[in-house]
Fold each of these.
Amino acid sequence: MNRDDEVDTTNRENMLNTYVVYVENKPGVLTRVASLFRRRAFNIDSLTVGRTEKPEVSRMTITVDADRDQARRIEANLYKLVNVLLVENITNAPAIVRDLAMIKVAATHEARSHVLELASVFRARVVDVAPDSLTIEITGGEDKIDGLLEVLRPYGVLEMVRTGIVAMRRGKSSAPVSATNNTDHDVAEEDVSHSV
Amino acid sequence: MKDKTSTTAKSMTGASILWECLEREGVKTVFGYPGGAILPAYDALKGSKIHHILVRHEQGATHMADGYARASGQVGVAVATSGPGATNMVTGIATAMLDSSPIVCITGQVGSKLIGSDAFQETDITGVTLPITKHNYLVTHASEVARTIREAFYVARSGRPGPVLVDITKDAQQTTCDFDWEAAKPQLPGYRPDLSPERKEYEQALELIHNSKRPVILAGHGIIISGAMAEVREFAEKAGIPVALTLLGLGAFPASHPLNLGMMGMHGEAWVNHTIQEADLLLAFGMRFDDRVTGNLKTYASNAKKIHIEIDPAEINKNVKVDVPLVGDLREVLHELLPHVESIDRSEWLDSIDQLKGDAAVRDIQNLPDSGHLYAAHVINDLWHETRDGETVVVTDVGQHQMWEAQYYKHEKARSLITSGGLGTMGFALPAAIGAKVARPEAEVWVVVGDGGFQMTLCELATIVQEKLKVNIAIINNGFLGMVRQWQEFFYERNYAATPLLNPDFAKLGEAYGIRSMTVTERSQVVPSVQAARQHDGPVLINFRVEQEDTVYPMVAAGASLHEMIRRPSKIVETAADE
């Protein structure tokens, strides 16, 4: 891409853009979307796809590293795909963004209690216990998961999988859910410092 | 004659539905090649009014459909079987994609139960063509044929046109279902071809136009696709703005018009490129700032504001950052703008452009003493002189002859030049000319082709003869892959690796196909040979043996700034012994 010509640099700072893309639920549509990013040399950071409340519509959350002009062109190129119904760039919109990870950590008897403690600080759940490992499931923003991962690393991360993010615009004039409701991970996120 | 308004469903095979739908879409002719997986469709062809033209290679079928589309503005149709038949179409589909040409390609596919089994002649052609089609379909049931064909035609011709491929399994062709045209309406909830600009954007554009002292219109292919020739002319005349054209824009604005500057870009005239570099406003009309017209983007029109009228929003700010984008159909956008455009006297600007021309006319080969040698520029100039009064369509291939055609054939009308611009597909000219002749039988069709490109698709000479088509072929034969040789001359120290061609006797070859053929070696023979070709009833092939190491000037080297042109030498230097 020959973009060196621009004197104005304000549009050239790269950032992670988050798109919510509604597509027709038809065979091959995922390939079309993925192929577009490859074809135009845009780097996908993460892509998730799943069902929605309407059976004929699938929903994708795509994060891409791009500058502002590229971000606009990504949107325009997505719209050129005949099966794409709606594209929302929610990068700067109030939104709930979630990633889910499962982390298998080496945990022999002396380390076990430390790992359990860390998991509880991050409000993660232990979903599998084996003689020499624990598997922890955590849901939250990417920063939160990165934070947990960082503190678990010294114990030995044996295996890790992340779903990639899913995102949803907040409801109109919504308020954060009360801090007493511990099941809401958004609140948990505020409770825990993970600036590791 | 079938009742077109009938809404009653009747039972038909997928194959019969296919032809019925093509007829209802207005198709009169298809270009194709049969094979196993498309045989049910060919079997059903006998019940159809559609004329099938048998090509000699499926690439030819796609270029013919493309030439048909570009000559007429109607959707061209190509048909092939699965596997190799389908993959042979790839080059033609990519050509149509890059030049926004509306074609529909129908391919047979192995039975739906066999898909994924690596069956005989199975290729995942929807996968293969995904990035080079506007859209494509795999049809596995007869009941999907009608809607898919209707959608394919609608997608191909609407918005920014492009190729659509429809892959139909053998069982979908063979099985029977109820056919109901009315019920098979396109269902494309995500497809929005008709965008239009905001009011505010129109106002911003008008302000830039009225404040500009040195504006230039950059006229592209979009003018022809949109049918906006009259509007562009009215706009240019009313506002007093000169017009530079892209290769695919040639014909969109009359060559003889006083405001016409000519072609811009890599092989445009130097003063045209200088005009763009000195402009304070570019009005890009249906063009996409291809690297062949901008040169180095860092230095491209750096003092100019830019207004981009373009139907495809993904083209906005792709190569060149623009100040005001007007996304929509060019003709409709100009209709909105025209009443508000003020007449401004820009004679000072126009005079300064005249100054830029300098000694260009003196350097022009047409104004140099005739050395007796035959140059491609002579051939093109004389061909233009002989054919300019009629309704002539020139179809070129790719390379030096293509640039000389663009420089020396003065196109007055839209759709009088058909050429592969974006993809630069050698082998395009001969089959595309067949498509053009079929689309416009009353037009005089000339193929202008190099000796390299001609040999890529010359098998279609047989198609010309079999279909009794009056197509004239001018081979600009220099015994080299000329444009590649030119690059080797300029940038690779004259290391002519793999560019000299040992050719057959093209006149004998033409005669073998039953085509009247001749060889021309001197300038004095050009006009008589063109006249003889025009008077002859059937197709004619003329083998013009031109100067071997001639060079297209001016030239902007790839990556250089647009104003850094390699100019024509002041007099022609003979570089090789004459044949």
Amino acid sequence: MSPSRSGDPEVRSLETAGLTKSFGGVAALGGATVRFHHGKVNAVIGPNGSGKTTLFNCITGMIKPDAGRVTYRGQDITGKPPHRIARAGIGRSFQLCRVFPRMTVLDNLLVAVCARGAEPQLASARDRKDIDRARGWLARMGIEHLERSEARNLSWGQQKLLELAGVLMGDPDTILLDEPAGGVNPALIDRIGTLVRELNAEGKTFVIVEHNMDMVMTICDHIVVFDRGRPIAEGPPAVVRSDRRVLDAYLGV
Amino acid sequence: MRRGAIVRLAVIAIGAGLVLSFPAAAGDPYMLTVGITIVNYAVLATAWNFVGGFIGYISLGHSALSGLGAYGTALLIAAGLPSFVALFAAAALVALLAVPIGAAALRVRGASFVIVSIALVLILLLVFQSWASLTGGSRGLVVPRPFPGLHRAEHHLVFFFLFAALLAGTLLAWWLIDRSRFGLGLKAIREDEDKSQSLGIPTFAFKLIVFVVSAAFTALGGGLYALWFGDLDPVFQFSVLTGSTMVLMALLGGVRHLFGPLLGAVVVGAALESFKLAYGDTPLHLVATGLLLGGVVMFMPEGVIPALSSLWRRRFGPQEASIREVTAAALLDRARHEPAERVVQEADRTGGGR
């Protein structure tokens, strides 16, 4: 799945053009044009209400933009239903971490396999191969000992790791993480950061919405700064950190 | 795992033995008709549970589908088809009709879906009452008996086994889906529909397919009833009360379990019939039914099977190892009431993943 047809990173990237979305007259996105770098860890930062989550929702098809386009690997995916976009290779996590609460940890991961629809749908959901792969991801997250617990009994941090494992189980090329460090203790933030870097080295592209600046500056290659529904600056961490407009709008020092 | 499989097989064998020996134990034809009614309820409640159990959409309108199956069977017989060909043809037609019905109804969730499903029953009730030239209207519609040579007692006996066979088929189909990838996808929809779709599940197609399967089995239940009972009245066929009974049986038994609706049908069906026998001429049998259901909702909200199995586990099972100090839900709840700083500290202490 991962190597794309074209070698040109420009063509392979995830990008939006003039993306616009209003909720009852309030513009959440005002003509946002962004290109995320393929094969990199991208970040979207900006004050609350600057349109970061709406951007994610438009990209993943959870909401339809009023205007503008989303393209992925050169293909227009604007307004496609979420499952199509997921199958095109874009996985996502949610701001308030979402797992299937009354399913076991293992089943939470197996769902992503049945979602891919490659094999006969009436085949057993508990395929040996899939279970082994799921256990591999759980072990990597360090929650393999919980595989038979119901997801609702996990702590917040464990649920975050479970959600990430579930997304990875679907084998996406590009992973959108909405506040991966939200409500998580410092040790776990480090671990999630390390995981992101490792997975990136294995070929996954990341787009991360995050308020934790330490994390963003440490793990991201490319940062897009949002303000009032539009990108106002972008570049590598060192550049963004010293950009006047960014300091004014967000870092606020 | 292995012990679980053996226990399950034993339960199935005992259950099947009990069902199949019922006619001999019942003795008189009246008890046999009670048995048929209960097995019929079990078919309908299990068929309902394809939708209610797997995707968590509570349909109060499934009597629309059983009613259509019943009238479809009767009308196709009138058109010249042999009884059992008519039964399956009617179920196929209802399944086909369930595609547009499901496509419209499954767009809305929660309470809206419940209301849409009730509307469906009420619309069909009006149609079947007023279209008297086709349906016989409120005078009713007589369905010719499939085995005219049989005595009444023999007729009941044959139909008891036919209903038991249909129940077995319905349970088998539910079990097949339950263990499949498709079933896991459906259960994911029940848990969190948007999240499932973000993982790549074509939620709408999944919901529609399982609704059609549910409609087909519900229609078979209704059609077989038509062949057995021999007389249809729109008021009883398209009744919100019948639809609610299916829901209550499934909820009472436990919608997450293969045999939940069956168990619910036995309990509720037996109670309904005995209340009718005891207080049949007064509204008191409805009061008694209400008390029973209220009691179940209060003391066993998850259904009988989960309540009993958790009791069993508490008594005899190993103590579950404690793996959590604070659940995410509790943490979230606290986050709403407490300053953010404290909650984050709490997460630090407990959320470390190990």
Amino acid sequence: MRSRARPLSPAAQRILVAALVAIRPRGHGFDQDVDDDVLASIEEFFPHLPAPMRLAFPLGLHLLEWAPLVVVRRATRLSRMSPDETRHYLERALAFGGPLGALVLGVRALVLLNFYQHPAVLETMQVDWAGRRDELVARRAELLQS
Amino acid sequence: MSAGPTPPEHHVAYPNVLVGAEIDGDRSLSADAVVVGTGAGGATVAARLRAAGLDVLMLEEGGLHRTETFTTDPTAMVRRLYRDAGTSMILGKPPIIFAEGKCVGGSTVINGGMSWRTPARVLEHWAHDLGLDETGPAAMEPYFDEAERILHVEPNHEDTYGRNTHLFVEGARALGWPVARAPRNMRRCVGLNNCALGCPTGAKQAMHVTEVPRALADGAGLVTHARVDRVVWRGTTAVGVRGRFVDDRGRARGRLQVDAPLVVLAAGARHTPGILLRSRLRARQIGRGLHTHPNAKCVGIFDERIDPWKGTHQAFHVHHFLDEGILIGYAAIPPGLLAAALPGMGPESAEYMSLYNHMLTAATLVEDDTEGRVRLGPDRQPFMHQTLGPADVERLHRGVTLTAELLFAAGARRVLLPFSDLPALAHVGELPRIAARDRRRGSTELMTVHIMGTARMAADPARGATDASGAVWGTRGLVIADASVLPSSIGVNPQETIIAMALRNADRWLEARGTRRVAGGGA
């Protein structure tokens, strides 16, 4: 991991990393080693969140860390579960609804957004929106000139 | 980028701009009119008032992002152009994801460019049932004409259609449903389909390339990174606004006060009532009447490769069911955003997304009767809540059924639904499962970019926050020019309605001031 100042405490970051590893896609061609990039990209969102959410997010991560006892009746912590166990737990928490479900929904959205938009993943998916941008900007300029 | 020719929208001049994020200390400014917000309503009114000779100052909470800086990366563009990095939510059952622009040009920078007129039955309802004079179809027609000149409305060229467009049209026609060619505010779209992240080609004629630079060139001023907290009063007369400069992340910097005898709020249907509520106005109707025009997605998975990212955005809609309050459209959504809306994590998400290039995403938008509300939270920021009533829930299920039917008719071999307890249908024979679904179970994934009605116009103050010209009841010098004033849900994309109503109301304010109205002034 890089050394620059990060918006989360080491403990909160550890929880987020455990959730990321469980949520990020695997199989079907999605085995790119991009977790560090995904985490860095997720962290870039935090300063842009509204203040209440910025404050609540780290607290929510700690709640998620300790909630397996309530959600899946297991006396353990999220960051000590295997990725498969964590995924099962997060799916149950999502179905739980309420603030915990909303938090999982948010973490899931951040992980999937930043994973699937990673250039290496897009290349695997054969999606070249960026290349098309350059091509069509020039194409439109030519059309307007002609 | 190659060094070849570039579109004219890459060379727009923005004179008279003060970047609030770069200002140290406090500032006090003055103008004849201060316009809060630079989206469809605010930019239109600013250009209109300036053309009538007023000294106009526009305030925008977001930054000025030039067309040539727009990319196709949603992780970057959402942070730059969207309020709260796109994380806003309307609370209720079900909760509704909400997105709006926070940048010069407002939500016109990130919308799909749909430019529909308000349906005639809606205008007739406003004129006849609600008693709002000169809002009927005939009275509004010149304003729609002018709005379309401002927006440069045209349909897509056929060479921009992708395979998703053809399939959408084929599906509708197979069912005997007519399709409507969507009028869009664009100048020779080339079909990049990046509308929701800012149009890098410049084809979409959003306010940051039309009315904002037009007003600036005419002598108006603009302060970016200026967050308005409240209106300043002398008795019941608005005499200006007060707020803070903010940085790109929204952190407060110096204080800002603008003195102006005319205050125009155009901060959108969430933040305009927020400013009113923070301004010690106690009128009961402020914040009430929220309509959200929610949409629900259905994703068809096809055997053939569609490459949904190749081809234009929503060249057609199905308006066949508009009298039922149901509109059906389609969109290409970037992989990261679509994955967040589809079910599953880990391998399940991977399985779905491995089929991305075989997906056609369609959506139903429903005209909601249920009224939600905007209130101030403990942090004094506005939050929204709306729980859809039974009639809206039924309309939503009907819309989802029709949308899934269209996708099957187009050849989908499976359709993913927005219901957590009914995530997919395997064939057309399963469509009745949608109507039969237990409404109390599971959750429904909804989102919207079309909120309205939170300071609605009404013939008397007991029924709305503003009068028939968008002036706030019980005040002087305070008017509203955004979707807040729309008296009811309109059932279509609201951009053109907002602009037409802003033009109509601006003429009324100018007449009330004794200022010559500017026929066609914005065109």
